[in-house]
């Protein structure tokens, strides 16, 4: 099949059903999903729980195995630097541990900000101390923990923990344009927050003061920007489907149960309105019986946003197959 020609407003996410992500093979046909038994549903719902417990266990191992390695890496520094570094490490570890113990949307943002920083610190400790059993375990566990907290299953577990009543929340894939700015700003945040206090502890005022000032600004500003990405959800509620995304949308979109005609993986020739950002990967198309109003978030060119009416919309959940399987319990899928 030749690649489709993208027309104005057409999504770049069209895909055939047999090219889906995890779980999408079973989700491509509505009949198969609709007849899924209790065992299959239970298994799908348990996967995010497994990811959450994996993150908890790995984070405990980081504390148990990493303490000696991090301490030895600072052993040749002044007492003030050692104390400052130890306090920073334990504060970061304890903050993530608390969020993993009491999961929620804020915990998702914090975990995805701090846990990868732990992997960076583990690399720095290995360079300073050399590779041995302790540093190897620390490198491995922090890397695995980073992979787990970055997974769609972990994200689903964290956002679902903050859900109300019978709603099912599914995290949306970040718009592609956000990846590079987010990665660069995260590196600035980690570098400034880690090195600023250590430089001050070492009495390097010339460099330490401006770096700490930068750290103060970015710690105040950037986490709120990161948190917006954690609050982008497709939500299945008893009354229908809700698209909660204040990055792409100016207003939440509500698709009422009786008006939803079909939910499926988006095809290449779809004419549905693209609400993904746009984001990479597979998108889900939701078709409605009556045009629904959609208001896009404001931009520099259109500060008040842009309003359209659409009979179909596209969203890009991190795990499309899980959304289709959950939707099939009461909505037409396929």
TrEMBL record:
The keyword Transmembrane helix applies. Residues 1-45 are annotated as: Disordered. Keywords: Membrane, Transmembrane, Transmembrane helix. Residues 35-45 have a biased composition (Low complexity). The chain crosses the membrane at residues 50-71, 83-102, 176-199, 205-222. This is Unannotated protein. It comes from freshwater metagenome. The lineage of its organism: unclassified sequences, metagenomes, ecological metagenomes.
